[in-house]
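ugh finaly. both done.
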Amino acid sequence: MALSSYDRPAAPAPPPGPPASEPSIGDLIGEIGQDLSQLVRDEIELAKAEIKQESAKAGKAVGMLGGAGYAGHVALLFGSLTLVFALANVMDPAWAALIVTVLWAVVGGVLYAAGRKRLRTVNLKPEQTVETLKEDARWARHPTS
């Protein structure tokens, strides 16, 4: 006589444990890590896009400022020539040119000294960023404090 499916003994019940629908703590921590990694990647991509867009705008502005600088240089050159010719009506043209040249040499020297003084005060180390990174590292080591 063959056993029917009703006559077979039942399989043992699985051991009690957490329901299959609830993930373990390890799974949750893994998901948090993945989410955090994705968040950082997304933020980096956003920063890249913003920097690229702003760099394009800055490049156009720098080009315009360069053109303005060149136009200012040409205007200064012609203004200097005008001053030389005006002084040449009163004195020898060579002396007029020398006076204008000395005038520009003095202006250049003053600008050089002022620029050098300001350049000495420049600190290229990003102090606030370094301090923020140190705070982040301290927080990461001791997140409860």
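ok and the 2nd:
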Amino acid sequence: MTLDEYNRAVDEWTDRVYRFVVKNMHDEDGARDVVQDSYEKMWRHRDNIDGTKVKTYLFTTAYHTMIDRMRKSKREVIGDPLEHEIRHERNGFSDLQEVLHEAVSRLPEKQRSVVLLRDYEGYSYREIAEISGLTEAQVKVYIYRARVFLKKYIGSIDVVV
């Protein structure tokens, strides 16, 4: 990869990578760190990266960095996890976007990641498989299971509104 290709990747993909990571992590500062770490790794390995595969490399690196960071933070849980649940149930939801956001946040990590890549970012099953390191069949299964969970969690639109 050349310096121009690297700079083009920064200009073209930073926002999309950030949105993907922040929707999974729900932590803007952590998402910025993941994006920065991903670009740093890409810079260190630039001699081994094909300029036409920058997008895949970048999203794959960000995905794995994000998963590592989320696993590490789960081990460092501070406070009462039930406190978060109780606060949400007391406040209720004001709109459908909040309900959907809450439902997506309850998905397991892999299901949440593939659903966000597919439904929010618009990637194909093949591209998601390359990014996540899963097979296309696994991606389809995770997306199906996530959508079934979301449908059950959200229920009827009449209940939400």
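summary for the 2nd one i guess: The chain has two domains: 1-78, 80-161.
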